[in-house]
Design a protein that fits this description.
The structure holds 2 protein chains of 2 kinds. Chain A is mainly alpha-helical. Chain A has helices at residues 7-10, 28-46, 69-91, 95-114, 119-150, 155-158, 167-180, 183-190, 198-221, and strands at residues 15-19, 22-26, 53-55, 62-64. Chain B folds into 2 domains: 7-42; 62-148, no CATH class. The chains are: A mainly alpha, B mainly alpha.
């Protein structure tokens, strides 16, 4: 029944899942992204946090850092939620649904880093929170312009040549995903890649990377 | 601070401060917004929207009256009607009690999410029901973060 309108970008569709008007699909491209996100979600589920040791220079002293069980549980929960949101964003076939998943990724990213107590980490998380909140305007504004100017939100209709999506809607979508996916900047700047609870931080990078790859596919296909 | 710094050095020094990224993003947003305002006249409204919406202030169900006949058949526009065989039973999800409340009082619109047949109809509104699930997930994640941070020191 469903045939992907332009298979040049992501390849022909392999499997179609119908949630009413939201028709999720797997093409070779999105299947690879989905498998990557699934792999890292499984890593997050089975992995244990790093136990780190600080060594004081000039002496024999060292400090072992404890990871509290509450912090571990919360971060793991947020990382798994982030993985599930990424999985949804990879396969969804609807623009508004994609923007919802992107903002879910953004808020779970905030959750992963907000659990820390270090001052500079919380400062970076606060700055990222401002950008992620700001980014919801272009993100949902892009989807709103799409539905107002074309009358539909389904990617199956938008990818056809009969429907032209305004350039500003595409720019807004990319800008919104940029804001939601800006977290790795802050992670790198605040140097929390190697902080306590290290493996769960990886989910921030994976989700942002995959969101960018997916929004590029959507924007080029439209 | 060396006196002769190249332009690239200055840019990278500016970007390397976390506090400047918000301003940088806002600047980018403003540029795209201005571009959008310039191209706005070329964008036309699609006269035949997929999800039409009408408001009827005189209805006792007011903000939530989306049309439809309870216990009847209501046609609904959807992108893929074959995926949603039960589409359109939206206001029709009113329970008999809600219907009685709507017929006798003018306050049904304020109570519609507080009883069965209220919020559940949104979830069962099956042309875009998946959106509803994701929206509530966003809310629940926000509540989870807030409650964790609030109760962390207990």
């Amino acid at each position: 029944m469903f045939n992907l309108p332009n298979p040049q970008i992501g390849g022909p569709e392999l499997f179609v899942l119908e949630f009413g008007d939201i028709v999720a699909y797997f093409s070779p491209y999105t299947t690879v992204l989905f498998a990557f996100a699934l792999l890292f979600t499984i890593f997050v589920i089975v992995s244990r946090p790093e136990r780190q040791v600080d060594i004081a220079f000039g002496g024999d002293a060292y400090y072992t850092k404890e990871v509290e069980p509450g912090l571990l549980r919360f971060q793991r929960f947020m990382a798994i939620a982030c993985g599930l949101a990424t999985l949804g964003a990879m396969v969804t076939g609807d623009v508004f649904n994609f923007t919802l998943f992107a903002s879910l990724v953004g808020i779970t990213n905030i959750g992963i880093v907000a659990a820390y107590r270090n001052r500079h980490v919380l400062n970076a998380a606060f700055q990222y929170g401002i950008v992620a909140m700001l980014a919801t305007i272009p993100l949902f504004g892009g989807a709103a312009i799409v539905v107002a100017s074309t009358g539909t939100l389904s990617m199956w209709e938008l990818f056809t040549t009969a429907v032209t999506v305004p350039l500003i809607a595409k720019a807004f979508l990319v800008l919104g995903v940029m804001g939601e996916g800006m977290a790795p900047f802050y992670i790198a700047k605040a140097e929390i890649t190697r902080a306590q609870g290290a493996p769960f931080i990886l989910m921030v990078h994976v989700s942002s990377l995959l969101l960018f790859l997916r929004v590029m596919e959507i924007v080029i296909s439209m | 601070m060396t006196p002769h710094r190249s332009i690239i050095t200055r840019i990278s020094a500016t970007i390397s401060r976390v506090e400047n990224l918000t301003g940088l993003y806002a600047l980018l947003f403003v540029i795209v917004l201005v571009f959008g305002l310039i191209t706005l006249p070329s964008i036309s409204y699609h006269e035949d929207p997929l999800y039409p919406k009408t408001l009827d202030p005189a209805s006792p169900l007011d903000p939530y009256d989306r049309g439809g006949v309870p216990f009847g058949t209501t046609p609904v526009k959807s992108q893929y009607p074959e995926n949603s065989p039960y589409a359109g039973y939206v206001t029709a999800y009113l329970s008999p009690f809600s219907q009685w409340l709507a017929d006798t009082t003018l306050h049904m619109g304020t109570t519609i999410v507080a009883h069965p047949g209220g919020i559940i109809d949104e979830i069962l509104y099956n042309t875009r029901g998946f959106d509803t699930v994701v929206e509530t997930s966003i809310l629940f994640v926000a509540f989870a973060i807030a409650s964790y941070l609030f109760r962390r020191d207990d």
